[in-house]
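We both want to read discrete structure tokens more fluently, so let's practise on a single case. Would you supply a protein for us yourself, any chain you care to pick? Would you write everything just below, so we can both look at the same thing?
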Amino acid sequence: MLFLTAELRALLGTPLSDERAELAHELAKDAIMGEVGARVSTPPQRGIKTVALSIAARILTNPQGLRSEQAGGMLQSYADSQTGVVLSDDERRRLRRAVGMSAGAGMLNIAPEETGYPVSVWRPV
């Protein structure tokens, strides 16, 4: 479990059914597992709860992914550019850092596999 239902209720500050909380938890968990795989431990590493709660709160406060809506003379704009179960770049970095994955392109090897050239990393001495 990435977070408790009581924590999500406290963050939202609104009534929340157990079913909606469970669904938000499962969607947040699915998004996190899709990014870092099964590297999340029990209990989760530091930083993962923050991302999971952020995703769950977005799902529950703006499930349709609206940027703005208008009713008569009232216009409501959502400040958060991220909506729904989409992970922001910052959330991806935080998750990858929490589970010990490299966040940069430093580990990228673009040489074709058939070349067989030895790969070495140049570092100034």
The two ends are 46 Å apart (CA to CA). The chain has a mean pLDDT of 81. The beta strands are 68-71, 74-77. The CA atoms of residues 113 and 119 lie 11 Å apart.
